[in-house]
């Protein structure tokens, strides 16, 4: 059974760097094709895709946030870390990590973490 | 970026009604189109992937038609548990993008 869980600070100050960790079970980056993505959702708003990392360390970023985002993985710990620099109040959102399933040719987020609300405020 | 536009933004329907939600892409996404259901306070749940494949456990009252740029999610007989916000998402090209969501309410 695949599970994911996000962890990190609930409150960050403007200009600070946010570091979020996604800890998962039920799959491993040692398996070809495995990917984990980050998606966020401001309160009352739509979902926004942020970044993806794959088993082979291929990384993809949202172009609009690329200069602020870094995604890494720790295969031994079954974790993915997302860092976002220069946080602003508009970055206040629930941040989700999700398992990216590309086994059928197309890709979709088939398992999601519960999400973690990050508030940016001084 | 490929823009995904959903319509309507919200709708209210009665139990048993047939409900349709449209998702339009600003350019072709082939069949790389997924749908998610999100209930308040919960993470999104994958409903349909690759345009028309139902995720395991999803009731058969959910179906999708379309390809290229225009897609329609249909709930054949709306049930109380279907009250949620529905999002389409393309995985054809980076950045993957979501529609703005359609909120479905039960009358």
Describe the model.
- The complex is a heterodimer of chains A (122) and B (107).
- Chain A is mostly beta strands and 122 residues long.
- Chain A is 0% helix and 52% strand.
- Chain A is built from no helices and eleven strands.
- Chain A has strands at 3-7, 11-12, 18-25, 35-41, 48-54, 59-61, 69-74, 79-84, 93-101, 108-112, 116-120.
- In chain A, the strands form two sheets. In chain A, strands 2, 4, 5, 6, 9, 10 and 11 form a seven-stranded mixed sheet that branches. In chain A, strands 1-3-8-7 form a four-stranded antiparallel sheet, with no helix packed on it.
- Chain A is globular and about 40 Å long.
- The termini of chain A are far apart.
- The mean pLDDT of chain A is 96.
- Chain B has 107 residues and is an all-beta fold.
- Chain B has strands at 4-7, 10-13, 19-25, 33-38, 45-49, 53-54, 62-67, 70-75, 84-90, 97-98, 102-106.
- In chain B, the strands form two sheets. In chain B, strands 2, 4, 5, 6, 9, 10 and 11 form a seven-stranded mixed sheet that branches. A four-stranded antiparallel sheet of chain B has the order 1-3-8-7, with no helix packed on it.
- In chain B, β7 (62-67) and β8 form a beta hairpin.
- Chain B starts with a strand and ends with a strand.
- Classes of the chains: A mainly beta (122), B mainly beta (107).
β-strand amount of chain B: over 45%
Sheet bearing the most strands of chain A, described?
A: 7 strands, mixed
Low-pLDDT parts of chain B are none
User: Ranges of chain A with pLDDT <50 over ≥5 residues?
Assistant: none
Helix-strand pattern of chain B, N to C?
EEEEEEEEEEE
Strand content of chain A: over 45%
Helix content of chain B: under 10%
List the helices and strands and how they pair.
The complex is a heterodimer of chains A (122) and B (107).
Chain A lengths: L2 E5 L3 E2 L5 E8 L9 E7 L6 E7 L4 E3 L7 E6 L4 E6 L8 E9 L6 E5 L3 E5 L2
Parallel strand pairs in A: 2-11
Antiparallel strand pairs in A: 1-3, 3-8, 4-5, 4-9, 5-6, 7-8, 9-10, 9-11
Chain B lengths: L3 E4 L2 E4 L5 E7 L7 E6 L6 E5 L3 E2 L7 E6 L2 E6 L8 E7 L6 E2 L3 E5 L1
Parallel strand pairs in B: 2-11
Antiparallel strand pairs in B: 1-3, 3-8, 4-5, 4-9, 5-6, 7-8, 9-10, 9-11
